[in-house]
Write a structure and sequence with these properties.
CATH class of the largest domain: Alpha Beta
CATH topology of the largest domain: Rossmann fold
Structural class: alpha/beta
Order of helices and strands: HHHEHEHEHEHHHEHEEHEHHH
Oligomer: single chain
Distance between the termini: 51 Å
């Protein structure tokens, strides 16, 4: 398959995304499998599934291995996973485990805490950084000719005075860098289980690229990008696919357990209030030893 063909979905329109999100599940499965086949053939079988142990990547792994049973899964062990996630991952065949060169403690000490969202944390980091140009800082404060995307919203500008570092670098250091290294070592590209409905950033990425992201640094395919959370659960039930038991404890998202992205939008009991009940040892470590108590207090968020 030629590069032009794999890029055929560039600049998806919003109405197309909405149409795809409204399709019945069986149609979505067919469309996703077509995207998987296109990507797999384009890369001459040199692919893997980015597998976090969460429900979305579990569905993706099922879709891919229904077509290509020998495709490996790659799990990035950041040390920030729920214990149930690690137990679940060990039960899956053909999983390659990667590890970060830095711990979360080292990342927050050097770069800063991940708070509110990647966009907000990135803007705060750039504005406060002595190494950033004035033009870069102005863009983070006021936006640019393309609009306000990437600008620090006024409601979060008090974070510029926070007595602790803030950064969006955690994911880059702990997840993306090990994956880039794996890509350069193996030549394998990723199937990733992100969805447009997860965040504004992921929706914008889908509108720009569709399911195929031909990034030179880390090319990837997001074949379930037009699915919804309801689709994920319906697929797991109908296909009788096993998923991690941590969801049965009330946990909704199984990403990095100490991450504070999205915390301001969560109703009480939020992720940390639930963690206090379900995983008290992890709660004590992150709240008191890593210093999340000071950050959450500054944000005015219950924990």
């Amino acid at each position: 398959m030629k590069t032009a063909e794999i890029n055929q979905e560039l600049k998806v329109q919003m109405y197309q995304l909405r149409q795809r999100q409204s399709l019945p599940l069986d149609c979505k499965v067919t469309l996703s499998q077509n995207r998987i086949k296109q990507w797999y053939e384009h890369w001459v079988e040199q692919c893997y599934v980015a597998f976090s142990g969460g429900k979305d990547s579990t569905v993706l792994l099922s879709l891919v291995r229904d077509l290509y049973p020998d495709v490996p899964a790659v799990f990035v062990d950041t040390g920030l996973e729920y214990p149930e996630i690690k137990t679940f991952v060990r039960q899956i065949d053909n999983v390659v485990t990667l590890r970060s060169a830095q711990t979360f403690k080292e990342v927050i000490e050097h770069h800063g805490f991940p708070v509110i969202s990647k966009q907000v944390a990135d803007a705060v980091r750039r504005i406060r950084s002595p190494g950033c140009s004035q033009a870069t800082k102005d863009k983070a404060l006021y936006g640019d000719e393309r609009g306000t995307y990437g600008r620090l919203p006024k409601k979060w500008r008090f974070l510029l005075e926070a007595p602790f570092k803030i950064s969006d670098k955690c994911c880059e250091v702990m997840k993306i860098r090990p994956v880039i290294k794996y890509y350069h070592q193996t030549g394998r590209t990723a199937f990733v289980g992100t969805m447009a409905g997860d965040s504004q950033k992921r929706m914008m990425q889908y509108l720009r690229h569709g399911c195929f992201v031909p990034n030179k640094t880390l090319p990837k395919c997001t074949p379930i990008a037009f699915w919804t959370e309801e689709d994920i659960w319906q697929y797991l039930r109908e296909k009788n696919v096993s998923y991690c038991s941590v969801y049965d404890t009330g946990v909704r998202h199984t990403g990095c357990i100490y991450c504070m992205f999205g915390i301001a939008a969560e109703p009480s009991p939020n992720r940390f209030e639930r963690m206090k009940q379900s995983h008290p040892a992890l709660y004590d470590y992150c709240i008191y030893k890593l210093g999340l108590s000071d950050v959450l207090t500054y944000l005015g968020i219950k924990f």
